[in-house]
Amino acid sequence: MPVISRIELYHVAVPLPTPFRPAWIPGYPQTHNRFDLLRLVTADGVEGWSAGPAMGRERAGIGDLLGPYLLGTDPTDIETVQQRLREMAYLGLRNAWVEPAFWDIKAKLAGVPLYRLLGGEERPVRLYASTGELRGPAERVEEVARHVDAGFESVKLRVHAATVEEDVAQVAAVAEAFGDRIRIGVDANQGWRVSAMAEAPLWDLARARRFADACADLGVAWLEEPLPMDDYDALAELTAKARLPVAGGELHTGGWPELRMMIHRRCYDVFQPDAMFTGGVAQTLKVAEECRARGLGYTPHTWTNGIGFAVNLHLMAAAGDADAFLEYPIDRAWTPPLRDAVLTRPFTHRRGTLTLPTAPGLGFEVDRAALRRWGRRFSTVTGGRLALRTLRDKGLRGTVTVARARRDRTPARSHP
Prior knowledge:
Blueprint: E1 4-20, E2 30-42, E3 47-53, H1 63-70, H2 78-88, H3 100-110, H4 114-117, E4 124-130, H5 137-149, E5 154-158, H6 164-178, E6 183-187, H7 205-217, E7 222-224, H8 232-241, E8 246-248, H9 256-265, E9 270-271, H10 280-293, E10 297-298, H11 306-319, E11 325-329, H12 336-339, E12 353-355, H13 368-374, E13 375-382, H14 383-409
Parallel strand pairs: 4-5, 4-11, 5-6, 6-7, 7-8, 8-9, 9-10
Antiparallel strand pairs: 1-2, 1-13, 2-3, 4-12
Helix pairs in contact: 1-2, 5-6, 6-7, 9-10, 10-11
């Protein structure tokens, strides 16, 4: 049985050439692509990688938590991994982004890309260009023109203005210029409003209805996150009455139980869970399957980092509709080489289409030179290190008790 024998954590900060101003955090000039990188290693030397977006060094102590829960775990036993992460979350630390590293190992041990392990087949994946910053109508038209020239058949705009009229003006300008040439989506970023840096518009059901009606009249293909993510009643009412598809679901850290409830209530027409937040690969796969069973759409959110993009790409290939579009984050200050800076090969499109990786696991290789340049390892956990820490914290008798408990739990990790 393979077991996890080493856990490493890195904080990575890739400098951006110019500040990126995300529409979802008004007033915030993002100067780095920051994330925490996880490396798992089995006793036989098989590596698994994952990465969670970070604002700073807020996870500085997470290695002390991951070690006791995950060291010695069979990486192919996803059910146990999910249970361990569930236990870790009882104190509020939901870390779904950790789970894909186990799938990376599991698929590598099987010798196949993850999407094949999940039942998918190799195929081209169509992408929509997902913009990130706010822009006025004229500048947005110029931006969309570049995406059209690059071969994209679909694009997502960001609106976050003080008034409905300003938001509609931007969409109308793009629809007038490209409405017959490109599929247009609009993200209102109301699902998880952030106003820590600057004031942000706060939509209610009435404003969402007005904007949805305007978008429908302009031929918009979908409206994303038009209301707070936990306003289930209003979301269900808007979705039932809107004349265009309503989408969302990217940041529901409650995972499968919460999203299943939202599917049954039809809070959205199209669900966009991001596995790095929504319970990992296993839970997100359940969401996709339930959407299909209920006649709803599924296409994942991918705007985190290159590894997060890879995880959701595999899920799209395994569980998404063949004719659906996958989100492809791209902006002036947020390009694939910056998003994927610690990967040896960025996930670059060809005329708005992406070829799936064929290497086993998640299908990428970490660039060790880039990791040394921009990453700092802040935690290493091995069996020896964990034993020494336990000895310091609990003394000899307590250490023996813990070792016996861990030994005795081993048979319980096996599932029929």
